[in-house]
């Protein structure tokens, strides 16, 4: 599956830790950054794939699961460390679930929002993934 856990550089000192995401951390130019928070218990986010966009997800606080599907296999990755991120390349279906209380999900994206880049129906995604 075309995903990867990437370590985010961490500077540790007794006053607290500092991590930095720059263009050499992710394999794409950063065009958009947003974050999810106050996700109600039992709610899910995501539920789509992208044709071109790449994303890098980080659990800044708390934890959540990322359910990934490339059309052939499914994998669940739990994110719970603010110094690690999950690179999701294009053509991967993703669902975010099991958000802990107070969790914050940072999303760093390779493109600005373009609705035509989204595949929001899983059956359409399966057809798309078999054509690639």
UniProtKB/TrEMBL annotation:
Sugar 3,4-ketoisomerase QdtA cupin domain boundaries: 1-128
Highest taxon of the lineage: Bacteria
Gene3D superfamilies assigned to the protein according to its UniProt record, in alphabetical order: Jelly Rolls
Name of the molecule in the record: FdtA/QdtA family cupin domain-containing protein
């Amino acid at each position: 599956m075309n995903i990867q856990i990437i370590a985010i550089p961490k500077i540790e000192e007794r006053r607290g830790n500092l991590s930095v995401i720059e263009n050499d951390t992710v394999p794409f130019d950063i065009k958009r950054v947003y974050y999810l928070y106050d996700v109600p218990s039992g709610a899910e986010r995501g539920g789509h794939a992208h044709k071109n966009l790449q994303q890098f997800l980080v659990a800044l606080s708390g934890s959540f699961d990322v359910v990934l599907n490339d059309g052939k296999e499914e994998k669940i990755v739990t994110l719970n460390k603010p110094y690690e991120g999950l690179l999701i390349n294009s053509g991967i279906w993703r669902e975010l679930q099991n958000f802990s209380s107070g969790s914050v999900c940072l999303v760093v994206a390779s493109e600005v929002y373009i609705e035509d880049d989204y595949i929001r129906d899983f059956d359409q995604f399966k057809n798309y993934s078999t054509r690639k």
